[in-house]
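Let us work through a complete example step by step.
Step 1: write down the sequence.
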Amino acid sequence: YIHIQGKEYRTNTHTTGGVKPKWNHTISFNIKTIHILKIEVWSRSIIGNDALVGRAEVDLRKLILEPGKTN
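Step 2: predict the structure and record it as tokens.
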């Protein structure tokens, strides 16, 4: 599952992805008042606590002001 701005979005479980799974899953959300997009990817655990797989913060103002530029 994924947390975007604190809201949980469910994705399909990927059981054969190994260490580099790909979901190609689309999620829509409103970003009108968001400047920094915060994303967390979690692995759901049946026993014990869920595990944080990774997190990222994206400055949306840079994407709008510098379209097409890559770092």
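Step 3: interpret the result. The chain has a mean pLDDT of 77.
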